[in-house]
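Q: Start with the shorter request: fold the first protein.
A: Done. Sequence, then structure:
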Amino acid sequence: MVGIVCLWDRYATPYLAKYEELLSSQGVDYEVIFWNRLTEKGKTTVTKDGRYIYLNQFCASGKKKMLSFLQWRSNIIKILKENHYDNLILLSTVPAILLEEYIIGRYTGRYIFDIRDYTLEMVGLFRKLVMRLVNHSVLTTISSKGFLRWLEPSNKIMVNHNITVDESVDFDAPHFANDEKVRFSFVGNVRLDIQTRAMLISLGRREKLEQHFYGRVLSNCDIEQVIKDYGLTNVFLHGPFGVEEKRRIYAETDLINTVYVNAERVEDIPLGDSTPLPNRLYDALIFYRPLVTSRGTYLAELSEKYHLGVNVNGFDASIEEEILDYVRHFNKEEFIRGCDELRKEVIAEEKQFRNTIFQILKDWR
C-alpha cells in the first residue's frame, strides 16, 4: 500500500487528485494522511474515513508554530509505523524535510517527492537536505521548470504540470468590444500579495474594468476590509467554486489575474514568487484567456515568449492604461497560436511524466 503525506487539508492540496487518479488507474491501493489543523487547543486525535486519515491537531501561530510542526512530525511518524506502508508520496517540501531522517532511513528508493514551491532552498543546510531527499527518491517531481534555478541538477527530477493530457479546447479567445467593460478574474485561493493589493486598490474605482475573485479567501487575507477601507466599487467576491464551474467562470472572464509577487521592484522579487507556475497558466491555455502577469517572474517569461498576455507591475501608475492598451491591440491569432504551441509542449511533457509514473506504480503493485 502507498501512503500519501499532506501538510494541509484536501482543499489546500488540489494536486492530490492527479496522484489519486494515477494510483486508481493502475490498481494500486493507497491512503492519504491529512493534517486537520485545529484552531483551538485540544486533544490530538486520529480519525479515519475510508482511505483518508485525519490527524486532528492544533496548529499554533507565530513563534510557536514550529513546535506544532515538530508535534506533527512525531504524530505522522507514529501513523507511518502503525500502517507499514510499502511506498510513500510526499506532497511538498516542508513535510518531506520534517520527515527526512525517517524517510531516508526506511524508504530510500521507495518514495516520490513532489516539490510545489520554493521554501528555503538557498539556505545551505536546507538545500542540502532537499537535494538529499531528491537523490534518495525514486522520482522527484516539480510543478515549474523555474525551480531549476535553485535546485541542483539531478536525473531524478521531472516536471509535473497541473494539467491532464485529455484536456481539449473548445473555447474561443475573447472578443473585446470598445463599449464593454473588461472582466478581470482571479481564480484560486484568494490572497493579497504586495503587488496584488496595490493593483486591486489602483484599479478599484475604474469604470472600464471589473475585478472578480473566485475562490476561498485565505484566513490571512483582508481583501474584504481593503474593499471597505478604500471604497472600491468594481470588485466582486464570488466565494469557493467547484472544478466543474471553471467553464462558466472563464466564459465570463476576459483576462486572468496572475499578479502575485511580494515586491515592488523586479530585483527584489523573492524566488518563492518568481519561479512557480500557477494553475491559472494552464487555465489560460485551455480556455484561451490572456494573462496579466507580474514582470520579473518565470511566468512572465513564458507569457512574453508565447504571447500569452501583458506583463505589468502592480505598482505602476499607468497599469490601467497598460491593460487597456493590450486589449485595444489584442492579436487574437498570435495569442491562440502561442497557447497552442505551449499547450502542445506541456502535454508532451505530461505524457512523459505519466509514463514514468506508470512504470513506477507497476513496480509498486
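Q: Next, the second protein, separately.
A: Sequence, then structure:
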Amino acid sequence: MFASDRSTQYPRIFHALVVSAAVAFLLAIVVLLLPFQRKMSDVEVQAQGEVAHHAAMSMQLAVSSLLEREWDSLGGFASFADLNDYEATRVLTDAAELVSEGVYWAAVADLSGTVFAGSAGVGEGRDVSQSDWFRQGLRGHRVNTLIANEPGQRDIVQLSRPVRNGADQVIGVALYALHFDWIEAFVTETADRLNVDVSMLDANGDTIFTHGNRVTAALDPILRTRAELGTRFESHVSPEDASGYVAGLLPNVIEGNMPDFGWSLVVRVPLASTNSALASAMSSLIWAAVGLFAAIGSLALIFALRYLKPISDLVRNAADIADGNVVYPHEAHSSHEAHVLSNALARLQIRMQTSNSASEAQPKLKHAA
C-alpha cells in the first residue's frame, strides 16, 4: 500500500474561496467604483460651473438694473433740460447729483460744445466740443468709460444723450458722469454675497478691476480672448492644480435697452477641495464599499466553515484511509455531497477492515490445519 503524498503544497479550497472573493471585490472596485469616482468629479465641476453661471447672471441682472436706473434718469433729465432757461436747467443738474449717489457731475452742453449748466456750477462755460461724450452724444446714445492713468484721478463712466426740442431737433447733449468706484463697490459687494471672485474687463480684454482672493491663480489669457470675441456665456475650467478654478464669462455685462458699455464679467470659483459635499459623499461611498467587502468576507467565511470545512475534513479522512490508518469518518450533513462522501468513506473503511481481518485469518487457519 502506498502512502499518500502530502508533501506537495496545493492550494486549499478554503483559501481559494477567500482569495477569489477578495479578487472579485477588487475587480468590482476597479470596474465600477473608479469610473464612478471620475463621474462624480465631472458632476462636481459641472455643479461649480452652474454656480459660476448663476452668479454671473445674477450680477448681470443687478448691475444692469443699477445702470438702467441711471440711464432712464438721464433720459428724463435730457427731456426736461431747457437751453433757454439757465436757472431751471441749473436746478435740474443739482437735483440729478443729489438724487443719485453715483452721479458726481451732471451737465448740459449746447450745440457749440459749451457747458450751459453744470451741477454746483462746475464746468460751466467750458468748451467740451472735442470730448467723446459730446461728439458721440450728438449722434445718439453713448457710454464712455475713462480709466485714470495718473495718481489722484478717478475712473469715471460718462453717459450722454442728445437734448431735443419740441420739434425733435438736437439742440445739445446731456451728461451724467458716474463714479466708477460706486459701480465697482456694488459689484464687489454682490460678489461677496455670492461667495465668488469677480473681474471686469474692457473691450480689449484688459482688466478694469478685480476682486476676491478665493482663487489665487492669475486670470487665464483664454478668458481675455473670449471676452473680446464672445457674445454669450461661456464656462471655463482651469488645470486641476492647487489653484485650479471654474470660471464663467459674460462678454456683455449690461443687458436691456442701453448702449454697449464694452464690459465683460468673469466670475471664478475655486475647484472644490476634498472637504466639499461631493467629496464627502465619495468618502461615504468608500466606507460603504469597505462595509460591503466586510460583509462579503463574512459570508465567504461562513460558507467555507459550513460547507467546505466538512468536505476538507473528509478529504483528510480519505487520505488517512488510503494510508491504512483506522479512521471513522464523521457523518456530514452540511451538504448532499458531504453526506454522500462521508457514507462512502465509512463503507470503504468497513470493507478495508473486513478485508484485512480476512487476510489475517487465513494464515491462522492454515497453521491450525
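Q: Describe the second briefly.
A: The CA atoms of residues 34 and 306 lie 34 Å apart. DSSP finds seven helices and ten strands in the chain.
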